[in-house]
């Protein structure tokens, strides 16, 4: 198929299969035939790096149309610690083991190592079709400051290829300190977000004070928030309860994202629905992270867990919460595997999260929903004027695209990436 689509500096149109749910303009497409997997065959006209128009065309298997997707979004990564498993393995596979190995890695971290890891990961992301990454960054102390120095350089160097957002991850109470305020001002100036971890055991009074401080600080600086929260099977929804308690008492002017929310799925149906509606009320967005959650959580010695904590994606969407799915860790103490490939993540999420890309809400978790969480200029839908930023797959269905890794080509601003 790709032999028929030679690299050219003047690509006028593409004849392709596209997810119908991502096409949001073109009255002439209303009656375009759609396959059982929600794909329709279109001619997409290009010019000056954007989509200029659409025509519906008849699908014919002999023409070998490729499957066209927008370049995809990774809403939750850790590029500063990627590929550290080899030197700092967590062979027990536990959360505690991951934390111990992570802290050992900090003792050996330097700018050169962080740069090497981040550039390797972003290189994979570019090749695999990623256009934007939100990375949580270990930001405590001197090593944290040096890590930010490097990643801000890389953010600037890669801005024409991949948009990089950085979240400062520190203990919540750190934001109360003078050092925390200084870090927060730097993060805000660089367009980053404030972060931290909310997990058991929950010390309610301290947690509420810390949350109120972070929210006030974020409001003052106009800085978004993205927390790791309830990444556990213990005390289901414990952190979420305290988060909502504080939100009931402060008016927020900045976006809030809750990453993980794993133990929320262990709540009763009544409580789960109640909390989902409260999150929707406050426009709190959620990133589900099935790969790391399935590896780390609910571990019991010599026993396969019967319950697997994972953000309740469908129930959250039903309540009106914007949900994205992220890949999280790549070959580090928190997850020994991963290739930073959005197609691999979509494929794994089908059995793990029962999320299907041929369903509109399922596809949104990797496209429009993930883009909205990151507040990107383009949400990934296809309309006249949208960027010609695509992944072209040598596949004629979702099944063939996700059952094996197909050949792919990446287009940025109307030109193929060599």
List keywords for this structure.
single chain, 418 residues, alpha/beta, 8-stranded parallel sheet, 7-stranded mixed sheet, disordered N terminus
Question: Care to describe what's here?
Answer:
The chain has helices spanning 95-108, 111-128, 141-158, 178-189, 204-221, 238-247, 269-281, 290-296, 313-318, 342-353, 360-364, 368-373, 398-403, and strands at 13-19, 39-47, 50-56, 66-70, 72-77, 130-138, 163-169, 193-198, 225-229, 256-260, 285-288, 323-325, 390-393, 408-412, 415-416. The chain contains 13 helices and 15 strands. By secondary structure, the protein is of the alpha/beta class. The protein has an 8-stranded parallel beta sheet with strand order 5-6-7-8-9-10-11-12. The protein has a 7-stranded mixed beta sheet with strand order 3-2-1-4-13-14-15, covered by helices on one side.
Q: Judging from the principal axes of the Cα atoms, what is the shape?
A: globular
Q: Ranges with pLDDT <50 over ≥5 residues? A: 3-7
Biggest beta sheet summary: 8 strands, parallel
| Helicity, as a percent range | 25-40%
**Overall average residue pLDDT:** 94
Strand content: 15-25%
Terminal Cα separation, in Å?
17 Å
Strand order of the largest sheet: 5-6-7-8-9-10-11-12
Based on CA atoms alone, the radius of gyration comes out at 22 Å
Structure class: alpha/beta
Run of helices and strands: EEEEEHHEHEHEHEHEHEHHEHHHEHEE
What is the total tally of β strands?
15
SS field, number of helical segments: 13
């Amino acid at each position: 198929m790709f032999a028929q689509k030679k690299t050219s500096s003047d690509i006028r149109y593409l004849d392709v299969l596209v997810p119908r749910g991502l096409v949001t303009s073109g009255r002439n497409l209303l009656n375009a035939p759609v396959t059982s997997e929600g794909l329709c065959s279109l001619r997409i006209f290009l010019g000056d790096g954007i989509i200029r128009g659409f025509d519906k065309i008849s699908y014919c298997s002999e023409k070998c149309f490729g499957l066209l997707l927008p370049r995809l979004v990774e809403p939750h990564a850790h590029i500063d610690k990627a590929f550290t498993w080899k030197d700092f393995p967590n062979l027990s596979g536990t959360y505690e083991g991951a934390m111990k190995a992570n802290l050992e890695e900090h003792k050996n971290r330097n700018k050169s190592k962080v740069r090497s890891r981040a550039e390797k990961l972003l290189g994979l992301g570019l090749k695999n079709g990623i256009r934007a990454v939100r990375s949580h960054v270990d930001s405590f102390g001197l090593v944290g400051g040096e890590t930010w120095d490097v990643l801000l350089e890389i953010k600037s160097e890669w801005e024409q290829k991949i948009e990089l957002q950085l979240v400062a991850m520190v203990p919540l109470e750190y934001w109360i300190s003078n050092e925390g305020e200084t870090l927060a001002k730097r993060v805000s100036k660089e367009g980053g977000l404030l972060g931290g971890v909310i997990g058991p055991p929950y010390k309610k009074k301290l947690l509420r004070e810390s949350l109120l401080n972070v929210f006030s600080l974020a409001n003052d600086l106009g800085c978004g928030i993205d927390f790791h929260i309830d990444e556990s099977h213990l005390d289901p929804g414990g952190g979420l309860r305290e988060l909502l308690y504080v939100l009931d008492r402060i008016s927020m002017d900045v976006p809030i994202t809750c990453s993980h929310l794993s133990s929320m799925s262990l709540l009763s149906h009544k409580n789960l629905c109640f909390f989902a509606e409260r999150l929707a009320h406050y426009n709190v967005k959620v990133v589900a992270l099935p790969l790391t959650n399935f590896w780390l959580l609910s571990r019991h010695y010599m026993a396969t867990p019967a319950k697997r904590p994972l953000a309740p994606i469908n129930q959250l969407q039903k309540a009106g919460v914007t949900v994205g799915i992220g890949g999280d860790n790549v070959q580090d103490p928190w997850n020994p595997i991963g290739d930073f490939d959005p197609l691999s993540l979509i494929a794994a999420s089908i059995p793990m999260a029962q999320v299907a890309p041929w369903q509109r809400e399922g596809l949104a978790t990797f496209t429009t929903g993930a883009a909205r969480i990151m507040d990107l200029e383009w949400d990934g839908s296809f309309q006249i004027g949208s960027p010609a930023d695509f992944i072209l797959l040598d596949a004629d269905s979702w099944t063939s695209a996700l059952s094996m890794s197909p050949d792919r080509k990446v287009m940025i601003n109307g030109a193929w990436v060599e």
